[in-house]
Amino acid sequence: MSQKPTIILATSNGVGMGHLARASAVATALKDVANPIIVSMAGGIAEVPAFMGIRCEYIPGRDRMWMSREKWDVYLRDRLLALAEETGAKVVSFDGVVPYPGVIAAKNANPHLKLVWVRRGLWQKKPQRFILGLQSKMMDKIIEPGDIARAYDFGPTANRKDSILTSPVSLFRKEDAMSRDDARRALGLDLKRPTALVQLGTGDSDVNEKVTAALSGLLGWKDLQVILTKAPVDKDGNSLAPEGLDLKVVRYFPLAKVLHAFDAGICATGYNGVHELLPAQVPTVFVSNIRGTDDQEARAKWCNDFGFALRADQADLADITEKVKMLQDPAVRKRLSDKCAELPNTTGGQEIAAMLYELAIELKPVRAKTLTFARLMAQDHINRGLRHVANLGLRRVALVYRFLNPHISVQEIDQAPPVFGSHTTAAELHPLIKSATRYEHIIEGASANYRKRREEIAFAAYGKEMIVTKTK
């Protein structure tokens, strides 16, 4: 019997869990025929190894600012190349809006490595669209995970002919989902009382205001238990919830398995939320997050226009409260739930897995794309330069303001040597990933040679500050 091929599923650190959820769905579908490994810059990767039995590595994103942008590009390239060499992987799939220069550089450094871009549709018209053509030419395959709202996609990827469209991708599977009572037991909820799920996140003041407005719409719902995936507090620890609600914060991954526990949902309109809650027939109000590249408003409008969910105007707090209050009506909930039964099956994860597997076992040689790579890197540097020029004026204004209003400087990066470890549980990984101490995550069962190579990569990235390593 031939050995299973290894496939690396890399994801960016997006606004939500969409990239990581899709990679997890694909990895789950691959497990029988291949050895999937997920690498991600998203902190949510801490949940994946123990719950899904998939080997993972966390890679600190450039937003951690642990090294310069140029060093990070090289660091990411070398991390991917080292992992491919350690595991014998011949395919790297990248799920993210912009394939980082380091991802494309890994492909250029090892032309035998096949690179696939899992490129979600429904883009807003952001600057990233200008190098779509060059990025696409570096790929061996481009796959677009289907979106139930694709008819409302008028963004820069909508009319491109370079991708293969699949069905929607979701971690929700009817055959795997727990029953209502089992899901409630798993979450520690009362079996009889109505239950609402709130997934809006917290952060900037406008996001916090939306959370308060949404929760206010649940006031007066008799015996309601409100479940949140994140504590409803601002950065200072002040509560965002109005008095009079029975709140509980739960952590469960994948949440898709327990969605039948909920009578209603209030959620951002990300790819992940829409393609889990609606196939699970949870009556939902969507409150869009307009940050990032994802056109959540287009997706919310489609869901509302065709009767699958309610859309709240994300810019109108009173409308958010009013739309959420509508979920208290059993007739509204039944109408939405019944309509969602018409949605197509979310089998995109299996479809993408099949394509990646075929690419992994394919013997056809891969042609190097050195010229395209050179053009893409040149364009990337030009784009950085343009952003730099555009930011100069803003920086000058900020410097003048800071001179007039000095603040106390806080050291956010721990200069201690990085921690190396092969941790696999969320309880271990969450604190390490969130810590100011630099964490170098190594896949479970790694060889001594791989550990040595990872130390070399870290030394090149962090320099003199790295003297010793801690390992588990």
- Supply the number of structural domains: 2
Provide the residue-averaged pLDDT. 88
Q: Can you say what the CATH homologous superfamily of the largest domain is?
A: Glycogen Phosphorylase B
Low-confidence stretches: 382-411
CATH architecture of the largest domain: 3-Layer(aba) Sandwich
CATH class category name of the largest domain: Alpha Beta
Helical proportion? 25-40%
What's the order of the H and E elements?
EHEHEHEHEHEEHEHEEEHEHEHHHHEHEH
- Count helical runs: 15
Distance between the termini: 34 Å
Q: Evaluate the radius of gyration.
A: 23 Å
**Biggest beta sheet attributes:** 7 strands, parallel
CATH structural fold name of the largest domain: Rossmann fold
> Strand percentage, roughly?
15-25%
Large-scale geometry? globular
Q: How many E strands?
A: 15
Strand order of the largest sheet: 3-2-1-4-5-6-7
Structural class: alpha/beta
Protein traits:
Rossmann fold, 15 helices, 15 strands, alpha/beta, 472 residues
